[in-house]
Amino acid sequence: MLKYHRLVGEYRVYVDNRWLPWVSNANPEWMVSVQEKYDLGGTLDTRSTYAGNKGQNINGVEIHIFEENGTGGGTITPVGKYKIIPNVPFISQVFKYPTGCESVSTVMALQYAGVDMTVENFIDNYLDKGSNKSFDPNICFGGNPYSKSGYGCYAPVIKKALDRILKDSLLYAKEVQGKSIEYLCSEYIDRDIPVIFWATQYMAPPRKSTRIPYEGRYIQWISPMHCLLLVGYDDNHYIFNDPQEHALTYYSKESVQRAYDGLFQQAVVILNELNKPFNRNNYAALKTELVSCVENDLSWIQFLGRWHTSEEALDIVLTHDASITQICNTFGIQKGLLQTVFFREQKFIWFQDDAADTAVVASYNYDKDIEQWQSLSLAEQAVIPCPTKPVIYRHDCSTGLCQIFAATAIKAINFAIDQKIITDEKHYDKNDLKDLEFIWFKLKNDDAFNIKCGVLTLIYEAISTLGYRYDFQNYSNEQIAMLFTKYNSISNLPNDYGKDCTKWYKIFHKYNTN
Known about the structure:
Blueprint: E1 3-15, E2 18-19, H1 28-38, E3 60-71, E4 83-84, H2 101-112, H3 119-125, E5 129-130, E6 141-142, H4 155-166, E7 171-177, H5 181-187, E8 195-200, E9 207-214, E10 217-223, E11 225-233, E12 237-241, E13 249-252, H6 253-262, E14 266-272, H7 283-297, H8 300-305, H9 310-319, H10 321-331, H11 335-347, H12 351-374, H13 378-383, H14 406-418, H15 433-445, H16 447-465, H17 477-488, H18 496-512
Parallel strand pairs: 5-6
Antiparallel strand pairs: 1-2, 1-3, 4-11, 7-14, 8-11, 8-14, 9-10, 11-12, 12-13
Helix pairs in contact: 7-18, 9-11, 10-16, 11-16, 11-18, 14-15, 14-16, 15-16, 16-17, 17-18
């Protein structure tokens, strides 16, 4: 097992019949951990690297040099099966950015992705910074990365800074929460995508330290917090560009796991845009090819019952291209999958769908009316007639752009929350009429939410129902046909919906990538 050997020095001086605080050129959090580990008395001055007071004689000096031995921290020959991303830039944070590990690690990732960025530019122009006395690390960096008195920040802050930097590029940042390190390696490292990774300095055991006050509550700071760039692994180690150390710094898997868990399993990656905005120059060719294919696939009953023409359905889909592109990029799914089911549902919206929506609205209105009537006194009820129950009484139906049932959306949302795919929703209960009503009306009236739930439904059916990997770009035609089938039915074999949609998907995908 690889060991690192580190000499850490702290010293203080005796002036005017008292010992002044310990000083060091080490990181403040490391100074704290050394003091606690070796039970040093006195206090720490984490802002200074020199001892003494101007104009006063020094009557004594106390110096402690500690050899820190731990698992990992050096460079060795990789063991067994390994993967190392080649040519990832390395930047040191030592001296210039004593608490800027997040910024330095992020700039390494940006430079690897081909973005012209310096650490100074990132810190000065893109990183949200606040007071080191009161801050939330999910909202801003606490203090100044150029100072030893700075604290740090968490993944959402880095994601927000990257969003600003990458907004006009074909790259985007993705926050990854709650995923295993094995997942990060298989999903990103194996694809030559380095991972901005939260852990601890030198993979020391995480511990609770300062409680930071912020807006009437306290945030527990975890020390000694650190951010590194994960660039590889072997059988025994995870390999990092550690801005406090050097390129290709090895740490044992056990120590990295402990540190990663202690910092809440958070990471950020920079990805290439999977989907681009639709090129309107392709419109005529897409329409010609798609309409021809669709019309050939229609049955006689579909010809009689269609509500939108193929051209109208296509135009509706393309009207929402910006939202589709953004949402599909957020979830790493090629937008042709969503465009296809969106198109299919718009193509075959019949008058029955409008009637079903009307019945659901009437049913919820009846529920409110009957509840209000039942709250009346008996005398009032004798005068005011009881509301009439609708002939068709139902609380759910497929609705909105992608024609989604509220119960289906709830199932997909809950799954996405449990899998840490989304963090901006709460769990809902499809058997709770209040939850069902809220989701149904949001599906009906909020187009962006409906599109998002269309994507989440595809994800749910692919991963939960069919057991596929979260790797949509590599699905076979058979897998895609089954995915479309499950979007519309419970069939265990590809049905006509799935087969037709697969052919239409190939056309959408062709013109999305041209």
